[in-house]
Amino acid sequence: MIVDEQTCRIWKEKLDNLCIDLHALSTSTENEFLSIGADLNNFYARAWDISKMSSSLVSSMSETELAMVVASFRDLLDRMNHYIREAESGFRNGTEILNDINQSIDNIYRPMASFKKIVKILRILSISTKIESAQINNYTNGFVTIADDVEKLATLIQFKFADIISSAESLKTSIEQTHRRISLLKNKRGDKDKTILESTRATLTLLAQKNELSSRTARKISAELESVSGNIGEVVASMQFHDITRQQVEHVEEALHKVSIGLADENPDIEKIIQETGIVCELQKAQLADAQEKFTHAVGSIMDNLTGIADNIAELCEDVKKVAGTEDEVSSSFFLRIESGVSSMMSSLRENNEAIRELYGTMENLIKTVGSMSQFVSDIEDISMEIELIALNARVKSAHTGSEGAPLGVIAEAIQKLSVDVRIQKTEISDELQKIISKAESLHQNINASTQEQTTETGSMLSDLNTLTERLRITNETITALLKKIEKGGRELANHINNTLSGIHVNDLFTGRINKVLSVLDSIVSEALELMPGMDFQMNVKTLKHMENKYTMQSERRIHHSHAIIDPNRGIKRYVEKNSIPSEKDLGDNVELF
What we know:
By secondary structure, the chain is mainly alpha-helical.
């Protein structure tokens, strides 16, 4: 190939055009990277806002907050268990007392049967007294009065004990009705109490599950937020490599520009110019290939990490929804289920309270019936005293009549003996009546105290349930509001990131222009080898020496050194060292960080 100035002019023109392209490439990529940097600042600010809202949400559902609610519910469950045990004990004691009262009523019937016999004997004694007194002189007519008194007493006893029997039957009926009512209320309460406990336990189970889920998800969300921060950090680091590649491209531009100036000399040393041009172009090919590799890797890292940010934010939003209990849009939210359980408990407590009041009213009626029987104790006492008085009068009158009153004396003795029997039967009946009255009053007092206590406790538990419901409602509203903000913010951030990703074409632009430059440089190197096949390649060290001082990065120096010695038998060295993305120490002293 003929070496002439025309070749130098063509090379100069090519190199000048390459310098223009490389300068334009640095400017255009820098503008696009500045735009990405502005978006990145926006992403970081919005991701930080989502991070803070997520932290607030997790805090609202934290172990501490939920533990307090769980502890409150467990305390309420303990109180309910005590409440139910007390109610069961009250029903059991009430049933036992009613059974005792019923037994006491049954115990009355036996001595009452004895009084029927006493009434018959009194009537016989009354008639006998009248018969015997008719056979005695007039001054003994006092026996007629005694006979009348005995008859009246028999009639009184008959009526009084008829009343007692009637009242006893009425009381037995009331007891049976009360017994049935207690059994009904007990069964009804048993179902309601079971509902209360099941609702409370179900609520505790939900809370415990939510507590555990919150704890696990809080750690997962924290890790996801760290991943987002890591992604952003990787993007920032990748953005910094644009400055590295820009400097490499500028250094290539300077080297090619210097060669272009040499090609414009009026009296050039053609051989030296060709040799220097070939060596420099080969070296700049290696530098540009390295810059292209770094740039492609950096842009790929930016896009991968932006995609990672979008994916992590989307996953974070899903995890936050799980914490809030709204992951299934078809099912009710967690807090609605809790409120439903609380509402069931409150309804059951109110119904139980009404049942207790109803039982108290039933016992009031029973007490009135028992109260009317207390008069019978006094009546029986009066009857006992009356018959003893009649017996005494009969004995006195019999003594005054002498031998003629002997039969009346026998009658008086019979009345006296009968009074002893009456006293015994009276005591037995009175004791049973006293037992009935005492037990009924005890039952009434117990139910009254239990009613007041359980009414107070029911009111307290209802108040606590209202408080818990209010706490849950406020927490639910807070979480719902945060959830909407997080979902909206996450969705908008993901869309913005995806829009940014779809608009990143800088890699295609950079790669296309660099490949064009590499193609032109390759053609110049090939022409140089054809023009000077036997040139002295040992001068390359001197030729490249002045460039090394301009490098600002260690990777440039490594590439430079790999081309400092060239094998003359193989031509200009075409080996390009593969370099991984350099560490911070490779950034050099003149790197302007993003």
